[in-house]
Amino acid sequence: MPRIFIAALAFLNRPRVRWALALIWTALIIVLMWWPSMKTPPTFLGELTDKVGHFVLFGALSGLWLRAVYGNNNSNKDLSAASLSRTALGVLGGGLVFSLITELGQHVVPGREATLGDLAANWSGIGLGIAVAAYALVRRRTWERGERPLP
Fold this sequence. Notes:
By secondary structure, the protein is mainly alpha-helical. The protein has helices at about 5-10, 15-35, 50-75, 80-105, 115-145.
């Protein structure tokens, strides 16, 4: 593996960097959701572009938060399924509430509207983001221990 890649991974693994990424991504979502009259650019997906955007934004959000919270609480390399499950449920609950607040907040923003489709895309992204991040955390911790990794 190239040294620059290893150095970048080591930098991204620092607790302050993990928290900073999660907070910056959260702020980005707030700005994007509450910016007046933001139009979705046309793409080959047509009307689905907006929903895909919501899905990706909230999927990445939940993954970053799970990584920040779980990585911070388990810096001793203890991989507990119960600990990961509790953290994932906390991130899930927080993500669902945050998503609901950002969607409802669009009612007071000129030119914006909240839709159930957007909320469904947000919540689907949150679920998949947590699943992918949890899988990556488990796989990484088993690899660090020298155990047989998950498929």
